Amino acid sequence: MQSLIILASEAAEEYPVNHALAWGIGGITLAILMGLMFALLAFGGGREHS
User: Sign of the CA dihedral 29, 32, 38, 41?
Assistant: First the structure.
């Protein structure tokens, strides 16, 4: 288990994370999901169920 943690920490050092890109992808994903939820709420009051 310890060797796995060491390998993960070494891999994280080799490939830096672009935080601006990560926040951008997260923001776009959140906007899409909020849009879908708004559409569900806006058009969800359609035909009554029998």
Answer: negative
Residues 5-44 as b/e (b if ≥16 CB within 10 A, e otherwise) read: eeeeeeeeeeeeeeeeeeeeeeeeeeeeeeeeeeeeeeee
Amino acid at 47: R
**Gap between the Cα atoms of 28 and 30, Å rounded:** 5
Question: Could you state, in chain order, the average pLDDT of each consecutive group of 10 residues for the chain (50 residues)?
Answer: 73 72 94 95 73
